[in-house]
Batch of 3 targets.
Target 1
Amino acid sequence: MWIALGILAWVAGWALNVWLAGRARSRATALAVPVVFGLTIVIVWEAVVRGFGISPVLLPAPTAIAAEFGQSAGVLWEDFVQTVLKGALSGYVIGCGAALLTAVVVDRFDFLRRGLLPVGNFVAALPIVGTAPILVMWFGFDWQSKAAVVVVMVFFPVLVNAVEGLRDTSVMQRDLMRTYAAGYWTTLLKLRLPAAMPFIFNGLKIASTLALIGAIVAEFFGSPIRGMGFRISTSVGLLALDLVWAEIVVAALAGSAFYGGLALIEKAVTFWHPSQRGQG
Amino acid sequence: MRSVLPVLTVVAVILGLWYAASVWLNAQWALDMAARQDRELGGIALVLDTWSQDKPKLPAPHQVAAELWKTTIGQNITSKRSLVYHGWVTLSATLAGFGLGTVLGISLAVGIVYNRVMDMSVMPWVIASQTIPILAIAPMIIVVLNAMGISGLLPKAMISMYLSFFPVVVGMVKGLRSPSRMQLDQMRTWSATRPQEFLRLRLPASMPYLFASMKIAMAASLVGAIVGELPTGAVAGLGARLLAGSYYGQTIQIWSALFMAAIVAAGMVGLIGLIQRVTLKRMGMT
């Protein structure tokens, strides 16, 4: 019964999407198609779990997760504050701020740029999460160590992107600033920083997902008795998978909100850039 | 070649800072020990002591190098103490995940490029999937797959796969769409079929994009494999070495595992870069 319903939902969802995609491309269809797809997946998931009688220890049904989400909202909120607001966000602000200041300095001295950029590119490819146990040892179990991990993780991607962005002005534009008798700082503020914004936001977006990952993984190496990483690893041990999935929903919502917020700010700041123009 | 001197300078400065930091961080412990043994410790002796402790807060670079040497060259590679053994455990999971992720990524990209419905419904979710901190659910994936009787390499590879498919999808979609209108029209004037168009035009055109994303995917895949080893309880692999080191306060062991991971990552990314150079050269694209 449930299996048939699942297959039916899949076919219906797909047919609806084919019909929607065949229509003229507009904002509504661009939004509706992925939503329909997502809903279909959730319905099929529910149907499969019920139809095949999958044990909740392996994969809880979406309805069970939603129920758990409502039931333990208090715990989830506490974990959210501990991990996202205290750990990830403070580390993100410190790390990105430090990276941007460093980028301006690096950009000023060509020697530094040629030396630091290859090193930065190299470090950005390394598994930096691995420093988590060391930083937890240095800064203790509370959120300070999580913030430190986040700082280290976001620093290099933002630095590399910002340095690249600061170079993204043409000689003509810089010459024009010189004919206006603009000094270094005026040129930096009025021309080069705005021109670097698309690159900087690219780095900030990459860093936003890294920040959440860093804060959660650092909790696996030791944490106070709250926090999303702590809750996930202990609940897995207790086989309370519906709580784990509820934490994942929180993490996904936080991650998407973070990313979406950055995208909105980017849209407002870089409205002049070709990738943002003519979209609406 | 012009950047050799600056890079060397920066590396030298980092090493210098590292030595200075290890003096600063380890001095307290050295002074405490000396006070307990009624010894005077100062000047050169203090500095030397901070660079040769057993469990320092921050081991000096030469200590890490010595540990790396001891655990790679000095050990039989089948021994559990050998970092080569642990590195291989992690690397095999990384490569399996990377392979699966690349295949999944390419096939999704082909679907997205050729099917408008898939483009509109799957692409936003591919992007959304990366805002979920997947590493956070690594423990659950491992435990659940273990409960289903799948253990060992595969669960770690699944996490690596999830992390590595995304850059490949994004890069390949961009690459497969990189041929211009004119080139596509040219193919049509030769009455090329769709498979021909794909094999002769789109696929070759996407190669530079594929290699660029494969480098990112490899780095991500290694991170996935390392984190995937954490919840299995420190059995084998670089992640297990990190966890065991943090349990027992063996900082030198943590740092050497970290450097081993860095070496593996750099080696793998370098290897892809080499393949990229050879392939693109033979295709006449450089």
Target 2
Amino acid sequence: MYKKLAAIAAIATLSTGPALADTLDDVVDRGTLRCGVVLDFPPIGYRDANNEPAGFDVDYCNDLAEALEVEAEVLPVTWAERLPVIVTGRADVVFGATSDSLARARTVGFTIPYAIYYAQGVVNKDSGIESFEDIRGKRVAAAIGTVPEQEWLKIAAEWGEEKNYQGYQSENEVFLAVAQGKADIGITTNTAILPITQQYDSVVAGPRMPWTTDYTSVVGKREDVTWLNYLNLFVTHQVRSGRYDELWGKYVGGDAPELRIPGVMY
Amino acid sequence: MEPTISFFSGFTPNDLLFLGEAALRTLWISVLSITIGTALGVLFGWVLYEGKLAATLTVAPVLDIFRSVPLIIQLVLFYNFAPIVGLNLDPFASGVVILTIYTASLVANVARGGIEAVETPMRRAARSLGMTYWQDLRYVVFPIGGRAVFPAWVGVALGVMKDSALVSVLGYVELLKASQILITRTQEPFLILTIAGAFYFALSYPISRYAASLERKWAQ
Amino acid sequence: MFDYNFHWRPVMKSLPDLLDAAFLTLQVAVLAMVLGIIIGLCLALIRMHMKGPIRWLASCWVELARNTPALFQLFFFGFGLGAFGLHLSPYMIVLAGLTFNCAGYLAENFRGGFNAVPDTQLRASRSLGMTAWQAYTRIVIPQVFRIVYHPITNQMVWAVLMSSLGMLVGFRELSGETQFFASRTFRIFEYFAVTAVIYYVIVKLILIASRLLATRLFRY
């Protein structure tokens, strides 16, 4: 009896074994590339006038699909969902302005940086916020599951103002909250400032946030190093071919930031 | 500062079409889930009625779980659980699965109530007239019990139709999600929410009124 | 077996926070129910005894609450009212939304309850020399409460389940807190599984409490 059980257990261990994740083969074989993209982060990811996905990240997804000679399939995700979709295997890759924090790297795999942002506030023009210090006592909004949220909550804890924080499902809800006056300042990234202040009359650019620059990476399954290698190569090729500059100029405007981190090998 | 007085700027007729399509998707996911869910629910209701002890120990607690956990939690859980076991379900499929089970868990109670509403003497009479068990179910229990619980079933169905709005958390673009997308693009929350609300109301109100009037008519 | 590694430790570490949040859930649900019962009772009485615009408003309240999705109602109290410069905190959005919804459903229950108490009782108590107020508070309403006791219990369960929508309007009750933690650790499945269990326990506790209370209140 025990022998039988042991045999069954042995077979079970053998057959399950370490699962060999190879997204690259899967994608080529499937013929579709499933990209998780955050679509409420203009101009990096948004919906155009026809409510179709568009933006810097969407074009990156299309470029990658083209390189792989497969169809691109955009999976709209929220900030909070963008890493779980990788963990559960719902998406092959996420283009979602994801900062490459060490905490996150415990869960997912990151490529070399593909875009650089810094955190900046958008403020309601009646709020009277001009400098970072003015934020004391004001209602602060950010999107759930973002670096701004986490960084802000650290500062808020120091100031004892966690009660004034409002977490929203999406960046756009943050903007709407600021525009309506539900919040005094919304924390977002520099790239969003221009489109947002153009869209809402009641919103103006606010102060820069004191934490460091956001180096953001393309995200893939942590275990799948060959896939991450391919994605690294893709990021380099986008820069070498001039596509990075072109898309940055098209969506954000101005010169594309250099994707190099000074003083250290990456 | 009058940000919302300029009601129609940014909101184009095209967007109305977008909302209309989304409304159809709300309708479609509801009809699908309610239909399958009702069929399953009636089956479970019958099992609960006939199965007594065995069913009370097996089916009943499972159905009870789906009534005691918020639908939104069920949706998020299932949507994230499916890929773990290797099922690659899109938001629509995940939504249909959960809404169907949810409907079934609610309908099961309604159906059992319907069967119980038919008094035993009546069923005995049917059997002594020579009807088989299934004939009894089909020609006696179904029409009489069904009539007794029809209003309750309409309540469940309308509830599921409204609750289908929660599938939006998975990213399925049904009516409420579509209105959210438009709100963020056009910054007209009041107008768009009013349109969305009016649609739900226009769908739900006449049906609930009709069910209520049927109930009154049958009660006489 | 699964291409997924379960991490339960972070969830267990934040369990105290989740339980705190569960109390917030319970608190907002109870508060909404108390307000809902008071307002629902008023709405039912207004619809039965008054005429003109007040009655019309009460009917609007009841029909809107019953025929639109609860999530829609929450959005409305959030960004919908925000369009008019009326800003509710997430707590108030959920409390207002739940109260609005519960009052609408309870009003219909109360109406059914009042209809089930025969008019003759009211007339009999009046002829015994009671004032209208006495007749209502001593004779009619106690009976109505006995009739609607079960629906009220159900509505209480609904209020708890519905409060989970708070996570979509930024309220950190049980679901919101879960989402917050899940978004930090990316362990959506594990967190929501634990939360589902907590909701299940809360619902069961409510049902048990209600049953105990019923045996004390209604000794037949």
Target 3
Amino acid sequence: MLEARNLAYRYGKQHSWLFNDLDLRITPGEIVGLSGPSGRGKSTLAKLLAGYLPPGRGSVMVDGRPLPESGHCPVQLLFQHPELAVNPRWKAGDILAEAGPPDAALLRDLGIEPSWLARYPHELSGGELQRICLVRALAPRTRYLLCDEMTSMLDALTQASIWRTVLDIARSRELGLLVISHDQALLGKLCHRTVCYFQSDHRSSACFPAAKPSFVRKAFPVRRDSPAARTDTWAPPPPPA
Amino acid sequence: MLDIQNLSIRFTRYTFGLKKKEVCIVRSLDLSVSTGQVMAVIGQSGAGKSLLAHALLGILPRNARIEGRVFFKGQPLTPERQSAIRGREIALIPQSVTYLNPLLRVGVQVARAARLSGINQKDVPATVSRAFARYLLQKKVAAWFPFQLSGGMARRVLTATATVGMADLILADEPTSGLDPITAREALGHLRELANTGKAVLLITHDIETALQVADMVTVFCAGTTVEVARADDFKGLGHLRHPYTRALWAALPTNSFIGTMKPIERTSDTGGCPFRLCCNDQDAVCGQSVPELKQAGEGWVRCHHA
Amino acid sequence: MMTNFLVLDLRTRTMMVIFGCLLLFSGIFLGAWLYGEQGQTTNLPLRKLPPGWDRPFGTDWLGRDMFARTLKGLRISLEIGLAAATCSASIALVFGLAAATMGRLVDVVVTWLCDVGMATPHLVLLILISFACGGGAKGVIIAVAASHWPALTRVIRAEVMQLRTSDYIKLSRRLGRSSAWIARHHLLPHVAPQFLVGLLLLFPHAILHAAGLTFLGFGMSPHTPEIGTLLAESMRYLSTGMWWLAVAPGLTLVLSVMAFDVLGNNVRALLDPKTLRE
């Protein structure tokens, strides 16, 4: 289980806390949606969960142990802009190889043509590059995938076909998914449950828990053997002094 | 206002040493925008949508080669004419603040855009403050630097910069990317307003829902080709859409059935047949033989053998 | 010919320019070697000849062939430039990497040194160092090397810092790659072209400053036919109408400096993946 305990973060001491005392749990095979207005720390939360940033307070645990400092991290993050997540001097084939030899079946499932592998990132379209990043993130040791607006730069058809494949893989490999998006319809189609949080303004920084009822759509039936009751909420931080 | 016929854009790329390969990114692209209209251009990412804007402004990289006919206000758009009217009669609203000079105050940049568009030196301050007032930007914003702008404010500044002159054709490249829904709606509202004042607006986006909020007409790109031109109202249901790609795109929306089992469309496939046939459920022998012509269908156009 | 040249595609033109520059430099070395001692020997019957077919650069007041002397001078200039630019670029590489990777204190010190180096008037620094090192080739090289590293150091420091915070480097770490692997596969290939181009673009500075130092009398000894020496000597004869003594070496100096600049910019175009396939 991927678990965030009392997580809090701020950029530097002079800034106010972006979020505070945050608890989140994702079990293997579970797909959790996260929505909320932009600029309120959704992406920062994803970076904390994947170990890109050290938490200001609290901890991130995988199966009761903290995230490993070195070695392949079981939590992998996918970015909104894939062109920033790849070395612009590398060809797509080299980018894939960074996470170990790519799985041929995975390449086929995601519709990656062999000819793409000889291209530089700026010669691939956003959708093509995002697929490359996806294969890289889905290395065998990955167990949780955080998708930060992964398909918001892509057209509807590419978006749907990428998610179709990701959901298939997530189901067969029992991956836990966190889907961050501002698109409620998309979250509704994908997720077992959606965590939503809202800050009225940055001065009072009040958070209101607004967990939506979990729902599973017929279009993508996903096995779900995690407990029904969920308590993941965004607890309000202490009032300003 | 703008009429593009059979435009193609090719790139020559070096593979190894001095060996070259020509890649065709855009081919047989047709598009027209008239005064007072918002024409949305939607399509896959990488289908050549942004290249279209760059081609119209004449700012493609050096290894690009353009063929086809482009008419602006009835006259052919030659490279000389492009450099004369870009910024004056055709203006681009770019994607993000990174297109502004980070070291210059916002007001200075808007004033410069006004001067470059041919407004009299002494009228510039008045024009700039009108543009600021129109987009609800406070006077003090003129003294800010681009990094101080919030997402929505940056959009308004970019729009003000592009429209401060007398441009008749506005190109908006992904105007809502990275904006929350409220700010996005506001940015789109400004485009609608521009069209209502008699300008032609070309709205380039990957997001159908964005496009449908303000567009009159929608041009659908697939593999660098115009496959369908339809009225925005046609997107209310599957019944009025004529091309299988448009139908698939519509069906793939999360608000609809969210089905996307399509193979990715290889944009460099130069095999002669319909560019969409490999992904099409209705394909037959005819589709492999020739690229279908764009034919009129109702109030729109469609490029399909079976429409 | 000119139209043909313009019609050629970009990559061929870039390659030809690079090739042409390299040819020019090897020509200088080869020419200097072929002429041997000829430039040094006085030939009084042939003194003060203006440029002509057999002597393209004319002769000086001792009848020495100015073309031979210029070639020799350029060769010495290039050697000094190469040595100084390499030293300077190496210092920049070490300092830049150290500032970006070895923590705040090192960064503050290096940045401060950079600022000091850039704030001191170049020529004063050059003259001081060269004088303190006793002049000659050694003095010039040390002076030029010690005064030219700050600009490239800043570039390398900024590049490495920006790389270290980039998403793909952080991602590489989360994929389990070690710091050494990242340095070898991500940082090095990114910094190496910067280093090479920086080195090439340091060349013209080094050559010009070496010539300048010698011209002012703080560089090479007056017996070495360095370009600066040639120019300094020519001063005395300019008023007597021997214009070629200054013009010919001066022009060749400007030409070779420009050639290095062109070479640097073309190599950069070739190494950058964005322009690589254009």
